[in-house]
Automatic annotation (TrEMBL):
Belongs to the iron/ascorbate-dependent oxidoreductase family. Residues 99-201 form the Fe2OG dioxygenase domain. Residues 15-26 have a biased composition (Polar residues). Keywords: Iron, Metal-binding, Oxidoreductase. It comes from the Eukaryota. This is Unnamed protein product. SUPFAM superfamilies: Clavaminate synthase-like. Gene3D superfamilies: B-lactam Antibiotic, Isopenicillin N Synthase, Chain.
Length: 268
């Protein structure tokens, strides 16, 4: 696991709007091997920027601060994280991310649910893209699967800022970067908020190991032939969304999870 220390100079980066000191900077972790969904999510990406009247009506509720926060992340930290991933993979990730294909998301894990006593806040899954940055409000709940012990979960501190790698990073790196499987557990009666930035390759990028990379694990013929691009892969992940809460009956009475389905698609 590689880690990097950064200071995010924006009040939304830390719980209660406080600014971190040089010794209290949030830790961003580039997590190796192994990656939920009963939360309320608000996508604040491109459509909001295109509607000035909506921006004005929401300005008093902090929309500008949220957009400024995500813009700061995009310009200040995304390039350096891509550079770090390039070093780990042994090939340049930057050309595959020239259009900054990304989504901003605010997650509200509201305690008022149909199953208020349930501990499941967001089911176990791996993100589809290259990497995800998660900022938390100080409330614990995020857990990472132990890479060496499938089914064993390690809690993440509620004030930690985390970078999780996804399936696209696995493919582009030839398996040198592993995906981070994660989930969110709730504390009954406690509300939890997080701000998340998702980064993926450009939609037309072919998803196979980048040139010059020798895969460390055999990929499927579908991947190696270049039959899948980011747009197609995103659609596959989207169709599996309803399975994120755990195992359930699928087409043909097959039982499995979203991650199981993706693993079948990309590995030989």
């Amino acid at each position: 696991m590689a880690t990097a220390q950064i200071t995010v100079s924006h009040p939304l980066a830390t719980p209660n709007g406080s600014q971190p000191s040089s010794t209290e900077a949030p830790t961003i972790s580039l997590l190796g091997p192994n990656a939920t969904a009963a939360s309320v999510r608000l996508d604040v990406s491109a459509p909001f920027s295109a509607i000035p009247s909506l921006q004005q009506s929401l300005a008093g509720h902090g929309l500008k601060d949220v957009l400024d926060f995500f813009n700061t992340l995009t310009t200040e930290y995304v390039p350096s994280i891509l550079s770090t991933l390039s070093i780990i993979a042994g090939a340049d990730f930057t050309p595959a991310h020239s259009t900054y294909n990304m989504n901003f998301r605010l997650c509200d894990y509201n305690p008022v649910t149909a199953a208020s006593g349930s501990l499941n806040g967001c089911g176990a899954h791996t993100d589809y893209g290259t990497f995800t940055i998660i900022f938390q409000d100080g409330t614990p709940g995020l857990e990472l699967e132990d890479a060496s012990a499938t089914g064993s979960w390690v809690p993440v501190a509620g004030d930690a800022t985390v970078v999780l790698t996804g399936w696209c990073a696995v493919i582009l790196s030839g398996g040198r970067i592993a995906a981070a499987r994660h989930r969110v557990r709730r504390t009954p009666g406690v509300r939890r908020l997080s701000a998340v930035l998702f980064i993926a390759p450009d939609l037309d990028v072919t998803l196979r190991p980048l040139g010059g990379i020798q895969p460390i694990r055999p990929f499927s013929e579908t991947v190696m032939r270049g039959d899948i691009d980011t747009g197609v892969f995103k659609e596959v992940m989207g169709k599996r969304w309803r399975y994120r809460e755990g195992n359930e009956e699928m087409e043909g009475h097959e039982i499995g999870t979203q991650d199981d389905e993706i693993a079948k698609l990309i590995w030989a």
